[in-house]
TrEMBL record:
It holds the Pfam family Autoind_bind. InterPro entries: Sig_transdc_resp-reg_C-effctor, TF_LuxR_autoind-bd_dom, TF_LuxR_autoind-bd_dom_sf, Tscrpt_reg_LuxR_C, WH-like_DNA-bd_sf. Residues 184-249 form the HTH luxR-type domain. Gene3D superfamilies: Transcription factor LuxR-like, autoinducer-binding domain, Winged helix-like DNA-binding domain superfamily/Winged helix DNA-binding domain. One of its GO terms (biological process) is regulation of DNA-templated transcription. PANTHER family: DNA-BINDING TRANSCRIPTIONAL ACTIVATOR DEVR_DOSR. This is LuxR family transcriptional regulator. PROSITE patterns: HTH_LUXR_2. GO terms for molecular function: DNA binding.
């Protein structure tokens, strides 16, 4: 009986997720579904082009969370995530991990563990699981932290995972793929239609002269659109602008 009920719930979830047209809609749906398993606070992070020296800009990383917004900002903008032993594990591995295992390994680094425990205490996080996603490039990194309700300890969470972990992990992998296919939410300065068009024609191999003729403008105007696009994306070259706009799903969406 439980299998039939669960199957119906999952079919409804996957149908609604497939129909979602924005990252916000997909994220809200997923948070609601994970809460049904006992994970009521989630943190998702994804970077498609991690720098070799590890100096990734937080603006270039997609973070989604339903934790308290002020604490989430502290975690991200103040760089506290860099001291999170669970996230450090996720950056080097693929698969699911009990927080019991990740925190045990972090005991060897007292300073990192102290900062992490302090933040987890503020966020009222005591137990959970994390999933690190597999990606085709070594420079891609993605993870999701599933924090359990405050009334659940790690033993209870591990029991939930023993029962439903395979399903939960699959749902989160599919969410990750869905989010990567949708335009990024909360762009600080989204590209204009003409800026997107100019970048797309450059990506297609057209010269500035060709693009000017196609768009019905002067070559100087094409160069202006590309310059403004580089500025909004905070990159130096048009090639970098195309890469970053593609990462953010701002081009080739029609």
């Amino acid at each position: 009986m439980r299998g039939r009920v669960l199957g119906g719930i999952m079919l409804e979830y996957f149908s609604r997720l497939a129909a979602a047209t924005s990252q916000d809609d997909a994220w809200k749906l997923h948070c609601e579904q994970m809460a049904e398993f006992g994970f009521d606070r989630l943190l998702f992070g994804y970077a498609r082009y991690c720098r070799p020296d590890g100096s990734d800009r937080t603006d270039d990383v997609l973070f989604l969370s339903n934790h308290d917004p002020a604490l989430t900002r502290r975690y991200v903008e103040d760089g506290l995530y860099r001291h999170d032993p669970v996230l450090n594990w996720a950056a080097r591995h693929v698969g699911a991990r009990s927080w019991r295992d990740a925190m045990t390994r972090a005991v060897q680094d007292d300073s990192r563990l102290e900062k992490s425990r302090s933040l987890h205490s503020l966020m009222n996080v005591t137990a959970g699981y994390s999933i690190a996603f597999a990606h085709p490039s070594a420079r891609c990194r993605g993870f999701i932290h599933l924090a359990a309700r405050p009334d659940l300890d790690q033993d209870a969470v591990d029991a939930i995972w023993h029962r439903d972990g395979r399903l939960i992990e699959t749902m989160n992998h599919i969410l990750n793929l869905k989010l990567m296919a949708l335009p990024r939410s909360g762009q600080r300065a989204p590209l204009s239609e003409r800026q997107r068009e100019a970048l797309e024609w450059v990506a297609d191999g057209k010269s500035y002269r060709d693009i000017a003729a196609i768009m019905g403008v002067t070559q100087a105007t094409v160069e202006k659109h590309l310059r403004l696009a580089r500025g909004k994306l905070e990159v130096e070259t048009t090639a970098q602008a195309i890469l970053k706009a593609a990462i953010q799903n701002q081009i080739f969406q029609d």
